[in-house]
Task: structure prediction
Amino acid sequence: MGQKKAVVLSSGGIDSTTAMAVAAREGFEIYSLSFRYGQRHKVELESAQKVAAALGAKKHLVIDIDPAVFGGSALTDNIDVPKGRSDAEMEAEIPVTYVPARNTIFLSYALAWAEVLEAFDIFIGVTAVDYSGYPDCRPEFIAALEVLANLATKAGVEGKTIRIHAPLLDLTKSEIIRLGLILGVDYSLTHSCYDPGPGGEACGECDTCKLRLKGFREAGMEDPVRYKK
Result:
């Protein structure tokens, strides 16, 4: 039998990159999957490509979809990205950077590609600890999607169990960073900012930048990416 395969969702950020490193450590042949969905931070796709190459992915696929036609998110619509929010503000409500049903859509595509590849493992780098209040980063969501995956596919009906791995689910951002460093992740290749400058430099003020900087600070490390300020 050949090496077992895994589809790994990749945004080019800290979490998905670390999840990919975990999949590689567990012996999976990596098939990296990213999306061009009208996001204002398209530079993340360049990072995802670099990460896939660095971690030895067999293939990196970018799929074009367009949830921007629905609007409703600061990442895909003409809505300002929140800046300078406190931890309490970030935890108080679901932010306008939430893209409706994004992880559901992404995992559905991952599931379809996994069936074609005859892969029965999908990795996603969600965390339910240091995150911006997104409902599709919760353990209940991952568990429900795994049930759905086994009900909705030919592979599942034939008794080939499909697993959705969320290895970072219970980790803080600093714990994720420490794990990645142990696994040899080069975080200078990653990108997290929701509102980068024209040269790709991070703003340092959006929710994801603040969570990233907090994670590196608590890990006792300096973030290797460029910031505007």
About this structure: The domain at 5-218 is CATH 3.40.50.620 (Rossmann fold). The beta strands are 5-9, 29-36, 59-64, 121-123, 163-165.
